[in-house]
Each structure stands twice: as structure tokens, then as C-alpha cells.
């Protein structure tokens, strides 16, 4: 096989592999729109490039809204001693963070607080210092 043909096939193969999007805080979240919700954790996704956790929040009208919060990278959180077990499905939590720029129910969750006062900082260290 010629070097040119091999190069073409390699480029075609790599170009067809979907890549995970990794965006900065500023690209997706609005640091002028803080959010604070109280609800029940329904799901935790502990995978790269960022963790995601989902919280059902009951509104004053009784309607349940599911919020999706992004956090730091799993490896960075684990190096700081924060493991997947720090956020448990079924737990009641208060989440402090910032709303998504697109107006969806997504947000950047920087801090999770349990009713007993225990706190889990889910942001990367750099994001905590900026926001």
C-alpha cells in the first residue's frame, strides 16, 4: 500500500470518529445569572470530559422540573478527593451554580450542599476561583 493511500485512509478513519465536545465555562454558562435550586438527585454521570448530575426541583405550582448540572472533569475531582459516591441518587440537595446561556434547564453546578451542611464542590479548582 502506498504511503499516500495509507495517509488518506487514516485521515478518513479519524475524521469519521465522533469527538466529545469540550467547551469552556464562558462559552456555555452566564456568570451574571447565578442559580440556586433545592431538589432530589435523579442521575449522576461520572465521565469525561465533565461530570453531569440531574436534579428534580418542585416548583411552587407543584410542577417538577429536571435540571442538568455540569461539573468538573472526573480525574480532577478525584485528585481532590471527590468521588462519584459524593453525589447520591435520591438525596435532597441544594445546588449553587450558573445558568446556561441558551436558557435551558442546564447549568454549571459549582457546589452541592446536603441538609446536614456537608458540601461537595463539583467545579474544577480553576472554575471555583473564577466564579
Q: What would you say about this model in short?
A:
This protein is 22% helix and 39% strand.
Describe the structure.
This protein is of the alpha+beta class. The protein has one domain (20-130): Nucleic acid-binding proteins (OB fold (Dihydrolipoamide Acetyltransferase, E2P), Beta Barrel), CATH 2.40.50. The protein contains four helices and six strands, in the order ααβββαβββα. It has a five-stranded mixed beta barrel. The protein starts with a helix and ends with a helix. Mean pLDDT is 82; it is low at 4-22 and 127-131.
Question: Top keywords for this entry?
Answer:
alpha+beta, OB fold (Dihydrolipoamide Acetyltransferase, E2P), five-stranded mixed β-barrel
Percent of residues in helices: 10-25%
Q: How would a crystallographer describe the biggest sheet?
A: 5 strands, mixed, barrel
Number of helices: 4
Return the CATH class.
Answer: Mainly Beta
Rg value: 18 Å
CATH homologous superfamily name?
Nucleic acid-binding proteins
What layout of secondary structure does this protein have?
Layout: H1 3-15, H2 25-28, E1 29-45, E2 52-58, E3 64-70, H3 74-79, E4 92-100, E5 106-113, E6 119-121, H4 125-130
Parallel strand pairs: 3-5
Antiparallel strand pairs: 1-2, 1-4, 2-3, 4-5, 5-6
Amino acid at each position: 500500500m502506498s504511503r499516500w493511500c495509507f495517509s488518506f485512509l487514516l485521515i478518513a478513519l479519524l475524521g469519521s470518529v465522533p469527538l466529545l465536545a469540550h467547551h469552556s465555562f464562558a462559552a456555555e454558562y452566564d456568570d451574571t445569572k447565578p442559580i440556586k435550586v433545592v431538589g432530589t438527585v435523579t442521575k449522576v454521570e461520572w465521565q469525561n470530559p465533565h461530570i453531569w448530575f440531574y436534579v428534580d426541583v418542585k416548583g411552587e405550582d407543584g410542577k417538577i422540573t429536571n435540571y442538568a448540572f455540569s461539573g468538573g472533569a472526573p480525574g480532577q475531582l478525584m485528585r481532590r478527593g471527590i468521588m462519584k459516591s459524593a453525589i447520591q441518587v435520591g438525596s435532597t440537595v441544594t445546588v449553587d451554580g450558573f445558568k446556561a446561556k441558551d436558557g435551558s434547564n442546564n447549568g454549571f453546578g459549582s457546589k452541592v450542599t446536603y441538609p446536614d451542611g456537608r458540601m461537595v464542590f463539583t467545579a474544577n479548582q480553576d472554575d471555583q476561583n473564577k466564579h
